Amino acid sequence: MAKRNSSPDSTYDVVLIGGGIMSVTLGALIRKLQPSWKIRLYEGLSDVALESSNPWNNAGTGHAALCELNYTPEMPNGTINVAKAININEQFQLSRELWDHLISAGDMPQEGAFLSPTPHMTFVWGADNVDYLRRRYEALSVHPHFEGLEFSEDPEQIAQWAPLLTLERYGDQPLAATRTTAGTDINFGRLTSNLADYLRESGVDIKLQHRVTNLKQQHDGSWKVSVRNNEWNAVERRHTVNARFVFVGAGGGALPLLQKSGIPEIKGYGGFPISGLFLRTTNPEIVAQHNAKVYGKASVGSPPMSVPHLDTRVVDGEASLLFGPYAGFSTKFLKSGSLLDLFTSIRPGNILTMLSVAKDNWDLTAYLIREVTTSKEGKFRSLREFMPTANPKDWEFITAGQRVQVMKTKPGARGGVLEFGTELVSSADGTIAGLLGASPGASTAVAAMVKLLEKCFPEQYEQWEPQLVDMMPSLRGAYSPPQREEDDDLPKVLVEF
């Protein structure tokens, strides 16, 4: 076995695992709050933002609940519950404030490098859906966060907003749409790279093609981090470093590493991997006719993950349109992962949870089977429901990133539950934490990492809070902390691509 090298100089205050939006966001916050701390980031691939943060592995929606119907469920009494929509919107505004602060300080380029103002719309058809959308608009539009939201049932008005939705749509079927110009399209890959550049320039040691293979806590509470160097010309293939705090922000790779850490808090957690496809067109004549992210409503009986949306995408200055997502299944936990990932994640502590979730979610299994077995022609028909003039020759299928949904022990009961959001898992002593789950993910990364700071660094947080408020004024009383998923009985989004 190759010797693992470790020296006194290889002790870090913080080790970040994974080169995605979560790790670089946490790194940026800590660098601002504690500029003297020694930080290292490990990424197993050849660059940052090559997995879920890559622009073609997600839809790039700046999720602010402006158009997503999942966040505004209809309650049994007929009212529209907007609590989660307001919460998600507040979390996204927190992200905008941090980005603006970093830009103003000269730490990142102007937001045009990664963010494009793009209207957000919701589009539905059928009398019941039109009625629901009208009531949703009435409930949201009175809130200051949703000022400027417009509603219309006029096909001519909708055609002005997004011509491709109504062109050659015949018949007298009721239509309705909402629209706001406050929406955004975000290149999370570019944003992640910008934040990584800031970290490098501020002294953070970023190691690419270095994969963390094991985590072991020492007697003093610090962590021994075992790393494999996969660079082709590496002199030493394996080494270890010590870390006073470890953040596992490795996307689908977070669960296996947290399991290896042995912290009792990860017992009972499992992962359910889901892949996805998009249809994409770069035909300039088609792209020029659509400037919006338009979300619809999932078909009756379909899970929230099937919500269709026709999106403007701007990646490095080039515009295209995406439609989807179409769900798929792979046992990989990462796009670059192994087909054995799901099986090797099964442990004595989570097998009952996973079996219970499988038993209680046959509808999801049936949906995934239908999605995987649907022909390309069948998939294309769902695009034509949105865009009647769509022609297959103009569109291509692209593979989205892998997502791993959280399965965990059901609180206060036997069995397990499939979680539909992100889940922060941390040790009791606050020396290690990881983020599991998928949605709304990147858009609310700042809120998630502020929550982590408060939970894992309670003594320092009181000192940090004035500086955090200076960077993000919404933290001054107006911001509502993210809801605990287990306390939230509202329907949740299964996964966002």
Automatic annotation (TrEMBL):
Coiled-coil annotated residue ranges, if any: none
GO MF term list: L-malate dehydrogenase (quinone) activity
Keyword Cytoplasm: no
Keywords of the record: FAD, Flavoprotein, Membrane, Oxidoreductase, Transmembrane, Transmembrane helix, Tricarboxylic acid cycle
Biological pathway: Carbohydrate metabolism; tricarboxylic acid cycle; oxaloacetate from (S)-malate (quinone route): step 1/1
Keyword Transmembrane appears in the UniProt entry: yes
Catalytic activity of the protein: (S)-malate + a quinone = a quinol + oxaloacetate
Family annotation (InterPro entries): FAD/NAD-bd_sf, MQO
Top EC class, one word: oxidoreductase
Cofactor: FAD
EC number: 1.1.5.4
Membrane spanning residue stretches: 12-30
One Pfam family cited in the UniProt record for this chain: Mqo
Family according to the record: Belongs to the MQO family.
Stated name of the protein: Probable malate:quinone oxidoreductase
Gene expressing this chain: mqo
